[in-house]
Every structure is written in structure tokens, then in C-alpha cells.
Write a structure and sequence with these properties.
The chain is an alpha/beta fold. Helix content is 58%, strand content 8%. It has a 10-stranded mixed beta sheet, with helices on both faces.
């Protein structure tokens, strides 16, 4: 986050900071241009239904945003801040980047609208305006609103007070004018005179009139108490706008001075108001200009603050979060004004405006989904003062999606594709966020439910998975072993990498967290994925035994412990001692010896079947799991054994060849009769010298004989490239069941 603070920036309360900008954006240009057209086409009853439906969607969105806002310390960035702190940095960025562009382009749209609304009164006696006059006038407006907002947000917000007075006077003038000119019976039956597309088309045209409620949320970082002001100001603005939007069609529909045909005229626009309002256009045009100007101010205030927040979170260059002496995001404001100014060159923006409207609606979808997911996940930290049932937020989200489709199916598709592409891109960047989000809570809840289900069921031998724990002192020196463990567990099991911190070194909790962070970074640098943990223990022996026996939870208890073979003589003895003590715990053991720069790509794998069926099962299963990796998928497996007689040779060959088809695994079987002239080690070295990986059974050392056993293991290792000693202490005779069932 940026260290640049806004200590000198003025802070605003509910009325000036949230309620007023939100209400003024709701009571904007669409109210003056399209309300008469809506009443003239669908009648009073359907108009009120449209108002209620549209207001309901924005009301639910306001409730959802308020629920999130009352649960966190809200910072700069408005809706982007709420979404990113709820769903996470990547989804927040996927919404925030288009949101910033939408707010910035909105400055251009409103400036064009204001230029047209003012220049329509240009007297003909002054001469004909050049074709570029609207663009030029719009550019001047953009420069002025950018300069004002960059200088002082307080000045801009206070300027909205007289604008609100003008809007209120225009509404009052309309009501008084209609009352003085008499009433008639309202038209209740829809005629669709100039809207043959029907009800939903009229609804889609009207809906943008209610979407300005989020303007105040955009000022979140400039509020004295955002937890209090956002819900009060936002909900208050939505309700106030809804009341006004019920009053206006009631009076328009009963105005004796207006016919239904006149109301339905799509070109009538503001003239509907000027025909019946008290004093004609005296109050109406200034109010229209003020409403458009207020919307432009709202956009030029909100957009730079979204950009500032994106910059502070590392999604935009850091210099964009720089603040002026009075606490304004001046660089972001100038950049936003520059983009808005460049957009003037586009000229006709109606097509882009439709796409922008749909992008704004995706913001409402994201806000409501955030609130719904927060409620469903039910994190203990989620304690909003405003509680919204998850299904209410979900209904609001679905409603917003329907409106998006009604406005433009193509724009709806393009909006989701754009944000989906941004989401994928941001996930590939592996961004680091400094806060918890609902995504982590969702997976934790899902994991909890899964573990409860697993704990309630008996784990059948068909359901066995390698849940491995690998002890390392330094990941970088044990990378081949870690790679091999992850290859065994890839997509089919779980690998945890554990580091022990000893109490005599006085490690702190901070040291533990730093060790885990370093381990994760080291794994990531090698493109590996595993769970990392660090444990503070008294000594090596008791530490490994304690961690190995207790590791895991419910049905995810660790079943296989992985050791690397030590280079130190005492370390070898210690390892064998620990393995003997672990064998009674039911944990399988893998003792790995690999070349220092070994590549975990195997073309030839030898399994030495020593006669103990249980070890053979686990060795065959490990070889099969390795073949599931792309790099070793073509490995040739050879099962080897030494027996005392030709009869035993035939029996073992037949047995192994019998289980291989059941296991659906292809392997050669080579059983040799023991030679009096060669030891097992000599035969091992002779037959497996070309193998990339050799599996051997591992017996326990008798107490006091660990050194001799270690010497024997070293002797076997010496003539091999890579080797894994396997001790099966928990896996039953299940290889045919596991493999033939398709479970692995």
C-alpha cells in the first residue's frame, strides 16, 4: 500500500459525501428526457411497475454494498475496495479496472450531454456553429471539471448543493404547473406507440435512470465514517429517488395539458417538462444542466479514486496514488482527465455508452455476489450491522444480469468476456494481497464439510491416497526429493513439506512464519506445489515422531512419511532409529536416495520384489503413480526378484503376471534363481545398473544395529542411479482393487 496519506484532506459526512452525489446522479438526465416517453408508451400502471422493479434492484445492491461496508474498515476505492476486500484482489481488479474506465469515459459522455444541452439554445442570429463545436465545448467542460476536482473535492461537493436546489425547484415547478393547468384521467393501458419492442425494451431504456446510487460509495476514502455514511447515504438516496420517481409519472399521467401522443414522442425530451412547468423553461434547463454537471463531477471524483486504490494495491503504477498537499489524488485526476479528453476525439459515443452501462451493471452483480457469498460462507469475522439474506442478494444479482441482457445481449457477453479475461490475467500474475478474503473462507468451509463427510464414512481400501509428509532441513538442497514426492502425489494425493525448528535455538513465532514463507517461495521458484509447515520441537527424534504421528486431520491423516537419505553417518543411524519407531504407528515409509541433480524423468523403473507382499504392493503402486506423470508416462517397469528354486521362480512369476492384468499395468517380470556365486547386492547392481529408478523393500533395524544396516543400505545404493526404499506399514493388499477400480 502507498505510504502517502491524506492527512490534510477534508473528510465528509453522510449528506455531502454520500447522499447528495448519489441522489443527484439518480435524478439525472434520463429523468428529464425519458419519463414522459415511458408513461406515454406503457401507461401509469406499468410505469409504476418499472420504477418499482428498477428501484428494487438498486435497493438490494445498496443493501448488499452497505452490508459489506459495515463489516470492514473501508478505504479509498469505493465499490472496487468493497469487492477486492471481499472476493479477493484478482476479482476486485477484474471489476475495478473496467469500473475506472467506465467512470472516466462517463466524464466524456456527460460533457457531451452538457455541451448539447447548452448549445441547443444557441440563437440562430449568432450564426451557424461549426461541426466541431460540440467536441470543442465538451473538451472545455472536461478541462474545467478536472481542474475543479483536482483542486478540491470539498469545492465540487459543495457546488452540488445549489444544483440540488435547482433540481428540486424544477420538480416543484412541474408539479405546480400541472396542478394549475388541470387534470385528466390517467392512461392505464400500454399502447407502445413509439416502443413497438414492448415492455422490456421500455424497462431497459429507463433503467439507467436509477443507477447513480453508487456515486457516493466512490467517495469512501474521503468520508469521516464510511461504515455509517455509506449505508445511510446510499439507502437514503435510493429511497428518495424512488419516491420522486413515483411522484413524477403520477403527475405526468394526469396532466390535462399533455396528450398521450405528446408524452410518447421520443423527440419531445425536455420539452415535455417545459410545456407544463411553472414559468416554462426558466427552472427546467438550469436543472438539466446542473444534473448533467453533477454526474460529470461524480465521475471525475470517483474515477481517480478507483485508480488510486488500484495503484495502492499494485494493479496500477505506484505514482498514480500520489496525493497533493490537500489530500487529493492529483496524478490520478490529471490522468483521468486526459483520458476523458482523448475520448472526445471518438465523436459519437452512443454505442460505447451502451457498453459502459452494461459494465456498470456487472459491478452491481459483483457487489451482490460478494454479499451473498459472505453470508453463505459465514466467516466468524463477518459481522455486518446490516444483515441481508443471501438469497435476497442473489435475486438482486440475477435481476442485474437480466437487465444487462435486455440492454444489449452483445454488450452483456462482451462485458463478461472482458472481465473474465482480466480475471485470468490477474491470476497468472500471482498477486500478493495483505488481507483475508471470502475465497479463503469458502474453501475452508468446503474443506470442513468434506472432512466431516470423510470422517463419517469408513475409508475403504479402494479410497486410499498417498498423503505424504516429507521432512527437510533445506528445500533447495532436497529439491530432487521434493520433486519426486510431488510426482507421486500429483493430482492423486497430498504432499506436505515439514521443517523442524529446535527450541535450543530459541525460535519465535515470527521465525516460524518466516520459515514457512521462505519454503513457499523456494517451492514456487521451482514450479512445485505442496503444503509447507514449520514446527518448533525439542529435538530431532521426538520432533519427527511427534509431528509424523499427529500430522493431518480426520480422513486426511498422513499415511506415508518420506525421508531423504542423510550424507552424515550419525544422521543415517538417526533416520533408521526413527523409522523403526514410526513403523509401529501404521505409517508407510519411503527412504529416498537420489543423485544431486537428478531429473525426475524415468524411462526405466525396476521393482525388486523381496517376497514380502505388503512392500511389493506399495512399490508397484508408487511406480504406477509415477507413470501418471507426463514426463514418465512411457517408463518401462520391470518387476524383479530372486528365489531359491525353479519351482519358486515359476510360482512367483505366475502370481505376479496374474495380478498385473487386474491392475491394468504393463510390466515385465524377471524372476531369477539365486546363484551361489553372487550376493543379492551384486545381482542388484548387475541387473539394475541401467535403471533410472529402483524400488527396494526396507526392513527395520534392530536396536543397536542401525550402523550396520546403514552400511548395508549404502552398499546397495552405491551401484544405483536413484533408489527408493519402501516399507509398507499400513497399506493392505489393495493394488488390484485400487487400480482396477479406476479410483487412481
Amino acid at each position: 500500500m502507498s505510504t502517502n496519506t491524506a492527512a490534510t484532506a477534508p473528510k465528509f459526512g453522510t449528506f455531502l459525501g454520500v447522499y447528495l452525489p448519489s441522489l443527484l446522479t439518480i435524478l439525472g438526465l434520463v429523468m428529464y428526457l425519458r419519463f414522459g416517453w415511458v408513461v406515454g408508451n406503457v401507461g401509469l400502471g406499468m410505469t409504476l411497475l418499472i420504477v418499482l422493479m428498477a428501484t428494487s434492484i438498486t435497493f438490494i445492491t445498496g443493501l448488499s454494498a452497505s452490508a459489506i461496508a459495515t463489516n470492514i474498515q473501508v478505504g479509498v476505492g469505493g465499490e472496487y475496495y468493497l469487492i477486492s476486500r471481499s472476493l479477493g484482489l484478482e476479482p476486485g481488479g477484474a471489476i475495478g479496472i473496467p469500473l475506472y474506465l467506465c467512470r472516466t469515459l462517463s466524464v466524456t459522455f456527460y460533457s457531451f450531454g452538457l455541451a448539447e444541452a447548452i448549445l441547443i439554445l444557441w440563437p440562430e442570429s449568432w450564426g451557424i456553429l461549426p461541426s466541431y463545436s460540440i467536441q470543442l465545448f465538451a473538451a472545455v467542460i472536461i478541462i474545467l471539471v478536472t481542474l475543479l476536482s483536482g483542486r478540491s473535492a470539498a469545492l465540487v461537493l459543495k457546488a452540488q448543493v445549489p444544483i440540488m436546489i435547482l433540481v428540486a425547484l424544477s420538480i416543484l415547478a412541474l408539479i405546480i404547473g400541472i396542478s394549475l393547468k388541470g387534470f385528466r384521467a390517467p392512461e392505464w393501458t400500454p399502447t407502445y406507440r413509439t416502443a413497438p419492442e414492448g415492455f422490456w425494451y421500455v424497462f431497459a431504456v429507463f433503467f439507467p435512470a436509477v443507477t447513480g446510487f453508487a456515486a457516493g460509495i466512490g467517495m469512501s476514502g474521503d468520508l469521516k465514517n464510511p461504515r455509517k455514511s455509506i449505508p445511510r447515504g446510499t439507502i437514503g438516496a435510493v429511497l428518495s429517488g424512488g419516491i420522486v420517481y413515483i411522484i413524477i409519472p403520477l403527475f405526468l399521467s394526469v396532466a390535462a395539458a399533455l396528450t398521450v401522443e405528446e408524452l410518447a414522442d421520443p423527440d419531445a425530451g425536455v420539452s415535455i417538462w417545459t410545456r407544463v412547468a411553472l414559468f416554462g423553461s426558466i427552472f427546467i434547463y438550469p436543472a438539466v444542466w446542473g444534473a448533467i454537471l453533477s454526474s460529470a463531477f461524480g465521475s471525475i471524483l470517483g474515477g481517480p479514486r478507483v485508480l488510486q486504490a488500484l495503484s495502492m494495491d499494485g494493479l496500477a503504477p505506484k505514482f498514480l496514488s500520489k496525493l497533493s498537499n490537500n489530500g487529493q489524488p492529483k496524478v490520478a485526476t490529471w490522468v483521468s482527465g486526459g483520458i476523458a479528453l482523448l475520448a472526445v476525439a471518438l465523436g459519437e459515443l452512443n454505442t460505447v455508452a451502451k457498453f459502459v452501462s452494461v459494465l456498470f451493471l456487472t459491478l452491481y452483480v459483483a457487489v451482490q455476489l460478494s454479499a451473498a457469498i459472505e453470508t453463505l460462507v459465514a466467516e466468524p469475522s463477518y459481522r455486518p450491522k446490516i444483515k441481508v439474506p443471501w438469497y435476497v442478494s442473489l435475486i438482486g444479482a440475477l435481476g442485474a444480469i437480466v437487465v444487462m441482457y435486455l440492454i444489449s445481449p452483445l454488450a452483456c457477453l462482451l462485458a463478461f468476456l472482458l472481465e473474465g479475461a482480466l480475471l485470468v490475467f490477474l491470476f497468472t500474475r500471482s498477486l500478493e494481497q495483505q488481507w483475508g478474503d471470502v475465497a479463503a473462507g469458502f474453501w475452508l468451509k468446503l474443506a470442513r464439510l468434506s472432512l466431516l463427510k470423510v470422517s463419517q464414512r469408513k475409508i475403504h481400501k479402494r479410497n486410499w491416497r498417498p498423503l505424504m509428509l516429507l521432512f527437510v532441513n533445506d528445500i533447495n538442497t532436497r529439491i530432487p526429493q521434493v520433486k519426486l514426492a510431488t510426482s507421486l502425489g500429483q493430482n492423486y494425493g497430498v504432499v506436505s513439506v515439514a521443517k523442524l525448528l529446535f527450541k535450543h535455538n530459541s525460535p519465535s513465532l515470527k521465525d516460524k512464519h518466516e520459515a514457512i514463507k521462505t519454503m513457499n517461495q523456494e517451492l514456487a521458484s521451482h514450479g512445485l506445489q505442496a503444503f509447507c509447515e514449520a514446527n518448533i520441537v525439542d529435538d530431532l527424534h521426538s520432533g519427527i515422531l511427534y509431528v509424523a504421528k499427529a500430522h493431518g486431520i480426520a480422513g486426511f491423516k498422513t499415511n506415508t512419511i518420506v525421508f531423504g537419505w542423510s550424507e552424515d553417518e550419525q544422521g543415517k543411524v538417526n533416520t533408521l532409529n526413527i523409522i523403526r519407531r514410526l513403523s509401529v504407528s501404521g505409517k508407510n515409509i519411503l527412504l529416498i536416495k537420489l543423485q544431486p541433480e537428478a531429473e525426475i524423468t524415468f524411462k526405466k523403473i525396476d521393482i525388486w520384489w523381496g517376497g514380502k507382499q505388503r512392500n511389493g504392493d506399495l512399490m508397484l503402486l508408487c511406480a504406477y503413480l509415477l507413470k501418471l506423470n507426463k514426463d514418465s508416462s512411457k517408463a518401462q517397469i520391470t518387476i524383479r526378484s530372486i528365489v531359491n528354486s525353479e519351482v519358486e521362480q515359476q510360482q512367483m512369476t505366475e502370481y505376479i503376471k496374474k495380478i498385473l492384468p487386474q491392475a491394468r499395468i504393463v510390466a515385465d517380470v524377471k524372476i531369477q534363481v539365486k546363484s551361489n556365486n553372487s550376493s543379492f547386492t551384486e545381482t542388484l547392481h548387475s541387473e539394475s545398473k541401467e535403471a533410472d529408478l529402483v524400488f527396494l523393500g526396507l526392513k527395520n533395524s534392530e536396536p543397536g544395529e542401525e550402523a550396520a544396516h546403514a552400511e548395508k543400505i549404502d552398499e546397495m545404493f552405491s551401484g544405483l542411479t536413484n533408489c527408493i526404499f519402501v516399507q509398507n506399514n499400513g497399506l493392505e493388499d489393495v493394488v488390484p482393487d485400487l487400480l482396477s477400480s479406476g479410483k487412481i
